[in-house]
Amino acid sequence: MFLIKGLACLALLALSHAQFATNYQSGRNGMVHLFEWKWDDIAAECENFLGPYGYAGLQVSPVNENAVIGNRPWWERYQPISYKLNTRSGNEEQFANMVRRCNNVGVRTYVDVVFNHMAANGGTTGTGGSNADPSSKSFPAVPFSSLDFNPTCAITNYADPTNVRNCELVGLRDLNQGNSWVRDKIVDFLNHLTDLGVAGFRVDAAKHMWPGDLEAIYGRLNNLNTNHGFSSGAKPYIFQEVIDLGGEAISKSEYTGLGAITEFRHSDSIGKVFRGKDQLRYLTNWGTSWGFAASDRSLVFVDNHDNQRGHGAGGADVLTYKVPKQYKMASAFMLAHPFGTPRIMSSFAFDDTDQGPPTTDGHNIASPQFNSDNSCSGGWVCEHRWRQIYNMVAFRNAVGDAQLQNWWDNGSNQISFSRGSQGFVAFNNDNYDLNSSLQTGLSAGTYCDVISGTKSGSGCTGKTITVGSDGRANIYIGSSEEDGVVAIHVNAKL
Ligand code: AAO
Questions:
Q1: Closest to 388 in 3D by CA, of 288, 339, 321, 318
Q2: Relative to the CA of 207, which ligand 1 atom is closest?
Q3: In the chain, at which end, N or C, are there fewer CB atoms within 10 A of the end residue's CB?
Q4: What atom in ligand 1 is closest to the CA of residue 170?
Q5: Model confidence over 49-75: pLDDT tens digits?
Q6: How far is 71 from 24, CA to CA, in rounded Å?
Q7: Is 124 exposed, middle or buried (0-12, 13-18, 19+ CB in 10 A)?
Q8: Full-model pTM
Q9: What separation in Å is there between the alpha carbon of 312 and the centre of ligand 1?
Q10: 371-392: average pLDDT
Q11: E strands, 5-74, in order
Q12: How far apart are alpha carbons 379 and 408 in whole angstroms?
């Protein structure tokens, strides 16, 4: 009895420090990373697109003041100068207004928070006008002085956890999160964001911080702001950037007790599969059998802002917008499959891996422009506005928690499955056509394929699929079709 009570107490204690819930509004799913977007543009995007199309959340680029670097590479935002909310994306007032407007239409905001380090040598002026001297570890706008940092040394050995956590990642001045002043400043920064209505954090470079220090910091985070529609007692959702592809001393399991982690194996594996280096039939046990963390601890993605351009753990197998057919197939699989918390990358087009976002004058970020088919121009790729992707967000919302059922494969690269009786998808990654009668799990009727088109009134702008009274339908996906997927769901019934 005592043992049971004791265990229950321990479980409660663990939960009180654990921030695994996304805080999404019910009925919504799917997060988009609006990489380098401006706050005013995001506010409008929430109202015009993300809200109406069912997106649940968005990740923003770092919100705090960063070093201004020469030709304005995207990565200057990972070099903090202070915790003032002033960047090329906008100021604090604009950020607060954005969070409010997004929450009003049911879209939650997650901030990419950078507190492992401050700017490296060379970054002396901030986007908010503050000055710093990284060479003497002086950041007066926080303020931090040399007392707040670990001794200077370079990260050279991923087999040595102390080197990885106490030395400098690519020369970035390494804060000591064991120091109480440093902790206070970080906690104030995060709690200020929570007050403004954000729903959680992507913790940059979490692997480079000691789990015990992170636990102490997370343990002091305020509950979410109930004035923004969050339930009382809700904690920020935390997803930590821990790159663990195996073979290093630091493992993601050191962090999964504290929050979710960015599951880089998902990105690596899904890239290999849809590039044809692994067969689709093996996806039958997609999930922890592939070495992923548990579903509620895994923030999953096809690509992220680093690995799409070869930074971080960027293998050649990562799929990006540059290989659209495979990219859309992988994204459709990620969104159709129940595993993990999916995040969609929304990029700007690039050739040079250091190149910053589109600007009007080399400095000020340009706004995206929108075409009549929902897509973007002006240098913005906007994968989240590709029909094959946003319609799969709607698919995910339509199927909810329905179980994966009716798995079928042809023994190589053609697969299909249903989500209970709510939705059905089929994929063809073979170099010959898929043409089979398959069990969809759905009720009899005619459905609009949400990959090739959209349900519009009582019609469909793409293919239609007819399900018979036995739940079966003839599924055809030609090997040379523009998209190698078809998807139908209850809300796309004609
Ligand atoms: C820039 C310049 C640098 C300059 C520096 C300071 O590019 O030349 O020295 O400024 O002046 C971003 C950019 C950086 C940029 C930085 C600051 O990517 O280029 O530096 O802003 O402006 C590691 C970390 C991970 C980190 C990733 C990039 O663990 O946390 O590197 N990602 C985040 C952000 C990222 C940002 C920062 C952190 C810094 O998402 O945008 O940097 O705030 C192994 C380890 C990984 C490690 C990689 C790369 O990966 O496992 O943890 O990532 O090495 O060092 C195979 C292995 C895989 C291995 C990989 C690469 O895939 O399986 O494990 O190979 O070898």
A1: 321
A2: 29
A3: N
A4: 9
A5: 999 999 999 999 999 999 999 999 999
A6: 37
A7: middle
A8: 0.96
A9: 4
A10: 98
A11: 31-34, 57-60
A12: 40
Q: What value does the mean pLDDT take over residues 96-118?
A: 98
For 99-103, which contacts have Cβ atoms below 8 Å and span 24 or more sequence positions?
99/196, 99/197, 99/198, 99/228, 100/197, 100/228, 101/43, 101/46, 101/47, 102/42, 102/43, 102/46, 102/50, 102/51, 102/58, 103/197, 103/228, 103/229
CB 305 within 8 A of CB 74: yes
241 annotated active-site: yes
Angle between helices 387-399 and 324-336 (to 10 degrees): 10
Correct CATH for 16-262+348-381 of 3.50.50.60, 3.40.50.300, 3.40.720.10, 3.20.20.80: 3.20.20.80
**Section 264-272 average pLDDT:** 97
Ligand 1, atom 47: closest residue by C-alpha: 312
With 70 as the cut, is the pLDDT of residue 7 above it? no
Contact 312 CB / ligand 1 (< 6 Å): yes
Distance 311 CA to ligand 1 centre (A): 6
Report the alpha-carbon distance of residue 229 to residue 286 in Å, rounded: 34
Q: How far apart are CA 48 and CA 40, in angstroms?
A: 12
pLDDT digits over 347-368, tens only?
999 999 999 999 999 999 999 9
The label of the residue with tokens 């009727």 reads 445
DSSP state, residue 25: P
Q: pLDDT class for 312, splitting at 50, 70, 90?
A: confident
What pLDDT is recorded for position 18? 58
Q: Is the pLDDT of residue 458 over 60?
A: yes
Range 28-45 average pLDDT:
98
Q: Where are the domain boundaries for CATH 3.20.20.80 in the chain?
A: 16-262+348-381
Nearest alpha carbon to residue 345 among 46, 24, 5, 31: 31
Tell me the percentage of the chain whose pLDDT exceeds 70.
96
